[in-house]
Amino acid sequence: MNIVETRDLSKFYTFDSGMRVEALREVNVQIEEGEFVSFMGASGSGKSTLLNIIGCLDQPTSGSVFIEGTEVDYRNSSHLVRLHRQTIGFVFQAFNLISTMNALENVCYPMHFNRISRSQQKQRATELLDLVELGDRIHHLPSELSGGEQQRVAIARALANNPRLILADEPTGNLDSVTGKKITNLMKDINREQKISFVVATHSPEMARVADKVVKLSDGELTS
Prior knowledge:
The chain is an alpha/beta fold. The chain has helices at 47-54, 77-86, 103-112, 118-131, 147-158, 177-194, 205-210; strands at 2-14, 20-32, 36-40, 62-67, 70-71, 88-92, 165-169, 197-202, 213-218, 221-222.
């Protein structure tokens, strides 16, 4: 079964000057449950735009996105909120941790919106931080963690609500090569062991190496 399918997906931006930019043009992608997929291409190729539309952070100009067989209704805010709370987790290049919260609190935060009890939040967050090998850093603020450690917290946070799909936008882009490789291997291990689908927009050859499928884009169109 496909966890994600796009059909003739296009995204255009029109500026006040009248100039129109085609970020995506009739993109058709299928991602199976449990797959690790890398979107690759140069800056401006459309890979982040495609990721954001699949993640319901942006909406297409035309075409459709199906998640677990159901078409995404971008006009229905409650539908999008349910997807964000129950189905999709996010990992960002800039980590996007809340600076005033420690690692444990950052991982607990998404669970609050699903009305999970505080004790259950702490238990799951502790388990997830152990999973990403940060069990001894749970009370540290983001400013007290290295870049690699912050990204591990971000991965744990993405897992908080048991998503079936994790979307990651350049998750190793702010990390050195050694740390980036560790984060890549961690994501692949989680994908393999927990059967969670990963879709990663990246420039990293290492990320492409571990992927089950590589989707290449150029100027908004698929090249493979």
